[in-house]
Amino acid sequence: MSEHTLEVMKCTHEKQKPDPDSLVFGTVFTDHMFIMDYSEEKGWYSPRIIPYQPLTLDPASMVFHYGQTVFEGLKAYRSKEDGTIRLFRPDMNIKRLNRSSERLTIPPVDEEQLLSYLKELLIIDKKWIPEKEGTSLYIRPFIISTEPNLSVAPSQSYKLMVILSPVGAYYKEGMSPVSILVEERYTRAAPGGTGTAKTAGNYSSAYKAQERATAKQKAQVLWLDASEKKYVEEVGSMNVFFKINGEIVTPKLNDSILDGVTRNSVIQVLKDWGLTVKEQQVEIEEIFRAHRDGILEEVFGTGTAAVISPVGQLEWNDENITIHHNKTGPLAQKLYNYLTDLHVGKEEDRFGWIVEI
Ligand code: COI
């Protein structure tokens, strides 16, 4: 067998599936996982689907020490009509995985090949895709550096894995609005940093700010730019949109904002609905001014995990504002309905975003 042929080793004992009514995010994993290795001599080799299991790694593996790692997140859905597996724009996630890898000096993967391995894994664990409304199978591809070496330098060996997790809503609030604290001290990402890469350090370095938000009974933080603390960047781990006086505004991508797949999709859908969408620098002051002027209509985050997450309250500089009476706004709701219907096949795929298996 060639070093590039997919090997499949099925589990002998299937685990019990979770109750679809009590699914949370990311705590239950399916029967199988995908794994492949990288070495300088062989490139990516030995792709295999194996029973889900713990890893054995050298404690000197570079990922533990210097965090050379990247990940992705996408979802699989089951069509209500015929049970087909549906993926939402997986090509975008795989491309971004390579972009993140490039930033972290991790070798790229063959995008089509990775998609084909992912499809095989999903076919094998198809029964794990939950069907209840609002649930899905979250797909987590990730790469870790495995060379046992404490030198501060790129690893010469890696593992790419894909694990699958049946999930419910990401936030306990679901589609109910969340309250947000505008973070003034810490920053998520800086110009020239790793903000556009999906890498572990961007997320763990946010915990400290999250701690402050939680202490103030806020669900998430809103990140401002690192240099001036003036411009809006992201909300929690999502991109952010504002509806002001009938127009939609979202921060323009820069090298500290993640290029979200849901962000990209939402912009296209909104334009298709005839709405004006402006991608530009957004001053936090301008948002609070719009609220004072009575023209801040809606605020919502977009991301794969939550899809759309309405913001009901914002606190900045001890000023608290309430948006749309702390209720889910009509645009956020319409987008959520549209995207989630598209995911499961209740909405026609006019943009050609769905990959069926
Ligand atoms: C997403 O919105 O999909 C995220 O980035 C959250 C994820 C890291 C759990």
From TrEMBL:
This is Branched-chain-amino-acid aminotransferase. GO terms for biological process: isoleucine biosynthetic process; L-leucine biosynthetic process; L-valine biosynthetic process. Keywords: Amino-acid biosynthesis, Aminotransferase, Branched-chain amino acid biosynthesis, Pyridoxal phosphate, Transferase. Its EC number is 2.6.1.42. The keyword Amino-acid biosynthesis applies. GO terms for molecular function: L-isoleucine-2-oxoglutarate transaminase activity; L-leucine-2-oxoglutarate transaminase activity; L-valine-2-oxoglutarate transaminase activity. Its cofactor is pyridoxal 5'-phosphate. Pathway: Amino-acid biosynthesis; L-valine biosynthesis; L-valine from pyruvate: step 4/4; Amino-acid biosynthesis; L-leucine biosynthesis; L-leucine from 3-methyl-2-oxobutanoate: step 4/4; Amino-acid biosynthesis; L-isoleucine biosynthesis; L-isoleucine from 2-oxobutanoate: step 4/4. The lineage of its organism: Bacteria, Bacillati, Bacillota, Bacilli, Bacillales. Belongs to the class-IV pyridoxal-phosphate-dependent aminotransferase family. It catalyses: L-valine + 2-oxoglutarate = 3-methyl-2-oxobutanoate + L-glutamate; L-isoleucine + 2-oxoglutarate = (S)-3-methyl-2-oxopentanoate + L-glutamate; L-leucine + 2-oxoglutarate = 4-methyl-2-oxopentanoate + L-glutamate. NCBIfam families: ilvE_II, PRK13357.1. InterPro entries: Aminotrans_IV, Aminotrans_IV_CS, Aminotransferase-like, B_amino_transII, BCAT-like_C, BCAT-like_N, BCAT_family. The modification N6-(pyridoxal phosphate)lysine is found at residue 198. SUPFAM superfamilies: D-aminoacid aminotransferase-like PLP-dependent enzymes (SSF56752).
